[in-house]
Amino acid sequence: EKGGFPHFMLKEIFEQVNSIYDTIRGRVNAEASEIYLGGISEIIPKMVNAHRIIIIGCGTSWHAGTVGEYIFEEFTRIPVEVEYASEFRYRNPIVDANDIVIAISQSGETADTLAAIKYAKAHGATVIGICNVVGSSIARETDAGVYTHAGPEIGVASTKAFTAQISVLVMMALQIGHRKGTLSDELYKKYIQELYNLPDKVKAILEKNDKIKEIAAIYKDSTNAIYLGRGCQFPVALEGALKLKEISYIHAEGYPAAEMKHGPIALIDENMPVFAIATNDNYYDKIVSNIKEIQSRKGHVIALVNDNDTQVKKLAEHVIEIPETLEYLSPLLNVIPLQLISYHIAVMRGCNVDMPRNLAKSVTVE
Ligand code: M6R
To answer: Beta strand pairing status for 34-35 and 80-84?
Structure first.
């Protein structure tokens, strides 16, 4: 059942070659440059005219939603708010019939997310689900939805569901942005083409598994770790930190890199590994200076860089090379080495990676 892998988590990390493809296949027509999401086709006009979108979820699904905020705002220019479902449901949020709420959940059974959906619906909002489990409570409760076709996810640590959720958010944002005219025809087409290049790029990252394992061996006894990213890589940093926390029990935090100087940099010393996402984008030069600041305080930098990187390769103690892609698709690739690092560290520490202590696959209680 684990398909020859020692754990479900590793199997599911490797399945991302197919799960991203399965999520876009049949929905993105590269030849015609068309995107069709059957489950929300009737709601698209409402989404195009929306004044605001609220995304809710918990844990990894909230991280995917936060990546979605960057993508939606860039492509559609619609303001997006992302909120933990548990906070949303209890704080008397302002939501009405003009609102589009997108609820993200792998299991479709998360109690807080379900309650938040009921609240939003009761206040007249249109609620769209992004779920992995077909026929789940959230899938049934939402007005419309798009399934992530990731296949069953057994490992408690969510991996392939995360990349499938982002794939759905990308498709939605591309479609709405193109309809609205806030995303150029040229860029729209470029993204559509590139979506189909992702499986090979995922494969290229997975081929680096041995190297990633070697890096994991160096830092397996750490007691803390920091993950840094900017722009849409910031939520990827959060997700990297969550993966490490939940399966290896190492304390880890994700930050937007520029926040370091407002406090967290005080934590940096010779015992601190810092995972820095430094793939090419608008923030590249900024990240380079953040890396220098960490190194001058003796922190150990493990950087994710693109193949054609020039500066960070010379600076960082370790680099993991990632094939280049378009900016808003890069979270789909960058999260993979972070998943693998956590996996290997947890295994080396003797942890039960598929069933970490104190955690359940779906959190059906609040
Ligand atoms: O099934 P859901 O996506 O609603 O679950 C949400 C969280 O409970 C889940 O992502 C959790 O944080 C995972 N353990 C993360 O790996």
So the answer is: unpaired
To the question of pTM greater than 0.90 for the whole model, the response is yes
Instruction: Give yes or no for a contact between 88 and 114, defined as CB atoms under 8 angstroms apart.
Output: no
Q: Is ipTM > 0.95 here?
A: yes
Tens digit of pLDDT for each residue in 292-314? Answer: 999 999 999 999 999 999 999 99
Tokens 């500066």, residue located = 311
- Percent of the chain past pLDDT 90, that is, above it, reads 92
If you measure from the C-alpha of residue 25 to the centroid of ligand 1, how many angstroms do you get, rounded to a whole number? 25
The rounded Cα 360 to chain-centroid distance in angstroms is: 20
* Centroid of chain to Cα 301: 22
pLDDT digits (tens, 9 = 90+) for 155-198: 999 999 999 999 999 999 999 999 999 999 999 999 999 999 99
The question of whether 203 is a catalytic residue gets the answer no
Choose, from 208, 220, 313, 361, the residue flagged as catalytic: 361
**67 touches 169 (CB < 8 A):** yes
* Alpha helices in the chain, H assignment, sequence order: 8-14, 16-24, 44-48, 59-76, 85-90, 111-122, 137-141, 160-180, 185-195, 198-206, 209-219, 234-248, 284-296, 312-315, 330-348
Question: 203, 206, 204, 176: which is closest to 191 by C-alpha?
Answer: 176
**Do 81 and 178 form a contact (C-beta atoms < 8 A)?**
no
Is the C-beta atom of 355 inside 6 A of ligand 1?
A: no
Mean pLDDT on 224-228: 97
User: Is 309 close to ligand 1, i.e. is its CB under 6 Å away?
Assistant: no
pLDDT of the residue at 112: 94
Q: What is the pLDDT of residue 137?
A: 96
Q: Which of 7-11, 32-36, 199-203 has the least mean pLDDT?
A: 32-36
Q: What is the DSSP letter of 147?
A: E
In angstroms, rounded to a whole number, what is the distance separating the alpha carbons of residues 247 and 225? 14
247 lines ligand 1 (CB under 6 A): no
- Alpha-carbon distance 67 to 206, whole Å? 22
Backbone φ and ψ for 343, nearest 5 degrees, come out as -55, -50
